Amino acid sequence: MEESRADATVTDKQETNSSFPLVTRTRPSFNPNDLYYYGSGKKYLYIFNHYTFQTTKFFNDKQPSMRNGTSIDAIRLPQVFSELGFEVETLNDKTHRQILDKFQAISSKDHTETCYLFFAFLSHGDNIGNIYAADRPYQFKDVLTFLEHGHLTLIAKPKVFFVQACRGGLTDVGRRIEMDSNHRVSYVVPTHADFFIMYSTVQDHKSYRNKYGSFFIQDLCDIVEDYHEFYDLLHLVTLVQNRVAFLPHHARPYQNGPPQQEADARDQIHTN
């Protein structure tokens, strides 16, 4: 049935039982200011970087492999974001308890003067949503909970997460023709509309790095460094996704020139 002009402008009421008032919804109106966040306050980036892990029962008494190359990511991120006015704190090889304690401290802090909170997780991961602390896996949602229920001044403050970790053991071999622009970006809104989470890979798949850092974090830094004056975060994310997806590892710059053989390049690639 065609909607009349009168139908389009009138508010619609949802049916409820007699114990609750009717919920009235009006048609949305566009306000250009809704495209922007107040950005003149303090900006923070917290980096949880994991290179080595402990041998514990949570890892079946086996030590997870060392994450060679992650130190390059941990150096590059502060360099790029410090230039943008962020206060950067890097936390290396922290245990599960130490990570939770840090998020408890961050979430309970008065953030009246804060405009942005950024977080980067550089670690191993698995296909059930775990990220590895130094001593055990933990659910990523556990750290989000602290911020969801934190200090009232956190409300409406953008919280951005970059997660460099595997999410399974599958390798995305891709397709020659079809392209999906949403393969590498996830949007999560747990309780508030101010959370943004970008993963380095899709569910159940591997994520890659070599001794010069991870493809995702290095490309993220390149894009932010080169284009932050021209594009907003969503456009920057699209550029990152495109570069990660379509720039093959053998076409990436190497600090000491290209590897002598293609096999060497393959041997240098690790999964996170």
UniProtKB/TrEMBL annotation:
Please state every residue range assigned to the domain named Caspase family p20. 41-168
GO CC aspect terms: cytoplasm
- Top-level lineage group: Eukaryota
* Alphabetized Gene3D superfamilies for the sequence: 3.40.50.1460, Caspase-like (3.30.70.1470)
Basic and acidic residues bias spans: 1-15, 263-272
Q: Which residues form the Caspase family p10 domain?
A: 185-259
Q: Where is this region: Disordered?
A: 1-24, 251-272
The record's section on InterPro entries has:
Caspase-like_dom_sf, Caspase_cys_AS, Pept_C14, Pept_C14_caspase, Pept_C14_p10, Pept_C14_p20, Pept_C14A
Q: What is this protein called?
A: Caspase-3
Look up and give the organism this protein is from.
Eucheira socialis
